[in-house]
Here is the input.
Amino acid sequence: MAEPLNIALAGLGTVGSGVVRLIETNAELIARRARRPIRIAAVSARDRGKDRGIDLSAYHWLDDPAEMATRPDIEVVVETVGGSDGPALTLARKALGSGKSFVTANKAMIAHHGLELAAAAENSAVALKFEAAVAGGIPVIKGLSEGAAANAIERVYGILNGTCNYILSTMEDTGRDFADVLGDAQRMGYAEADPTFDIEGVDAAHKLSILASIAFGTRLRFDAVETTGISGVLAADIAQARALGYVIRLIGTAEIDRGGAQPGLFQRVRPHLVRCDHPLASVDGATNAVVAEGNFMGRLLFQGAGAGEGPTASAVVADIIDIARGEKGPAFSMPSQELEALEPASSGHRIGRSYLRFIVPDRPGVLAEITAAMRDAGVSIESFIQKGRGDEAGGEVIVALVTHEGPEAGVRDALRILEGSDSVAKPPLVMQIIGG
Ligand SMILES: NC(=O)c1ccc[n+]([C@@H]2O[C@H](COP(=O)([O-])OP(=O)(O)OC[C@H]3O[C@@H](n4cnc5c(N)ncnc54)[C@H](OP(=O)(O)O)[C@@H]3O)[C@@H](O)[C@H]2O)c1
Here is the structure.
């Protein structure tokens, strides 16, 4: 068998210790598949004395992970530290600049700096790989950049954040409200102590921007993802959706928009109503799912664990095996210079049905004002639901409506008309409807 591939591992938390465990447990199988053994030559984390439940005594400890970039015996640097900047980025730049291949699970860093790092990898003729950064254990990057490589992909969408999906599906199962379920998710370790990135949709937006670049061959535009999280979703919305035959899911959608003078890149993360018979409606708990539509392959659905030690480590080690086999293709499925620079597309001319929920004062004339705004903006209302006073509405009244199919611009215009009106007590919630 060939010489071992020497790797260094920065970060020994959930993902990093999973990588050590997986490489140790499946060493023989991995060596046969990779056609050479994978050897951990050095490790690094903040606290050397921390009990991680794994024996690290065989591995050389480095206090400063940046040292990995300069050690001649190391071929691949694996980063599972996290953070878009800071030590992870310093290590990535140094490692790639010094001719080491680089594997990471860090979606925040790739979403912000992926193009720069891809160019650095190309300059040094080494690999930059980040399968674990999108949808954890699901091989969606490989699926799109290799399995679907022959297709023009026009649309990719899915459930990209397990924490939000756990919260929404638990709200659905129990009828409890958002804050209550979030508290439980934090206690059970499904949500971070600071859950902002997850619940406000930022984590899903990181992943969506990476997927879009790979699927469409476009330059990464994380800055252009329209992002709304799930913190505004009420238990009443979930109950209402269910009564109408839908569930609520946080969906990221990316699409090449051909409705304008030039093609544009449309990217949006937002809670949606998903019809109960749509494949994404049955994706429960912390699971992730991605749908990609290609011109020859049709619709592909990838589904599985989007996070967690085992699944995420599995994706990291798959990248290392690729490198051991000598696969050093471009990070975003084509050389970074060739990625198309598309401008962000506006959602205005998108056609669809929407769910709008208002919290309004309990007085006459309010419903008339809302329906007049819809009429003036050319929005046709399919159904109108008024709920009595609810705790979540603070004694005010919850009003929801579903529109007929029409341009999203109409909904936006109607909301603009209602802006500042004393008939609308709080900012309304708008969700698009998937699955008819
Ligand atoms: N957790 C998941 O399920 C999952 C899924 C997909 C992707 N990811 C991504 O994987 C990455 C790691 O996530 P994680 O959940 O494993 O995080 P984590 O459990 O918090 O682990 C982070 C590790 O990095 C080390 N670290 C932090 N700052 C450091 C520094 N300045 N220098 C050296 N080491 C440092 C920590 O050291 P100490 O242990 O000594 O404190 C810890 O071992 C993130 O980018 C995350 O987005 C995670």
